[in-house]
Amino acid sequence: MLPTDSTKKLSFNRCIGDGDLVIVYERHDSMKAVKVCLSSVLQNRFGVFKHSDWIGKPFGSKVFSNKGGFIYLLAPTPELWTLVLSHRTQILYIADISFVIMYLEIVPGCLVLESGTGSGSLTTSLARAVAPTGHVYTFDFHEQRAASAREDFERTGVSSFVTVGVRDIQGEGFPDEFSGLADSIFLDLPQPWLTIPSAGKMLKQDGILCSFSPCIEQVQRSCESLRSNFTDIRMFEILLRTYEVRQGKVDSLPHKRKKHSNEVSNKQDNQSTAAVMARPCGETRGHTGYLTFARLKCLS
Fold first, then answer.
1. pLDDT score of 37
2. Would 247 be classed as within a structural domain?
3. Same domain, residue pair 134 and 229
4. Do residue 101 and residue 220 come from a single domain?
5. Domain range for residue 121?
6. Rounded to the nearest 10 degrees, what angle do helices 143-156 and 121-130 cross at?
7. Gyration radius (Cα) of the chain, Å
8. 98 near 180, Cβ under 8 Å?
9. Do 126 and 178 belong together in one domain?
10. Which alpha helices (H) appear in 49-103, and where do they start and end?
């Protein structure tokens, strides 16, 4: 997705090479991440696909199997990576992620603190948002989970913009070295109110904090803690409704033809025409969590 050079500048290569990570799109509900290897093959219900046939092709290419079936080879963008990554914890999805990045006012060059890392879904998008001159420092208390996240950031090419630390932020707070340096902070913790005092010390003046909580009781306690040093406290719930758009046939209304006097009964003629149809998806995601935002008060 974001291969980088030694100067930490983005150098995205649009052609697939040996060792690259690609997202194999089989159908709208079936995608997987695959590392390209010259001697490897991919086998699925559509046939056998040789990795050697992929090398040199641009991302987005349609490739065929020995049976004539086909797949698409897509670049591992944060949006697609969110859909295929391993779920070590419950993750944030695109609707929440995009809203978080906008309301935290994250732009290239920002320094962002995050706790906890979890499966790294949000972290990957944060890294792209702060690149090429910013950095994300993310913390998780679970050592193995942090190690797995580091491996994923290497695979997706964002490791130059992310540092993963093992730390109990709820119990210890953020490291003092970030005091007054953070532009934005994101919390995904069971008891975020315990971390809010530490977060306030880490933020720059007018910096913004976001806390993600699945339960309204967590939001209430967090807001109580925020009132002392924060202002402009807002809470949102993002509900996304997805539609399926597909080609189909629509039956026109039956109409009566003019009948001759010798016809016994009227006959109706049904005609169908091709059309593009849209309808809500059967599996619509409901509540994921509440997003609480607050801005650090400026010193008078």
1. 96
2. no
3. yes
4. yes
5. 80-239+286-296
6. 50
7. 25
8. no
9. yes
10. 78-84, 94-103
On whether both 94 and 71 belong to a single domain, the answer is no
Read off φ and ψ for residue 263, nearest 5 degrees: -80, 140
What is the mean pLDDT for each group of 10 consecutive residues in the chain (300 residues)? Answer: 46 80 92 95 95 96 95 95 92 94 97 96 97 97 96 94 98 97 98 98 96 97 96 94 81 55 49 80 78 90
In the chain, beta strands by DSSP E? 21-27, 30-35, 41-44, 47-50, 61-64, 70-74, 111-115, 135-140, 162-166, 182-187, 203-213, 230-237, 243-251, 255-256, 268-269, 272-280, 290-296
Structural domains counted in the chain:
2
- pTM summary value: 0.84
CA distance 21 to 34: 6
Q: DSSP label at 244?
A: E
Please give the pLDDT value at position 4.
43
Q: What is the pLDDT of residue 236?
A: 97
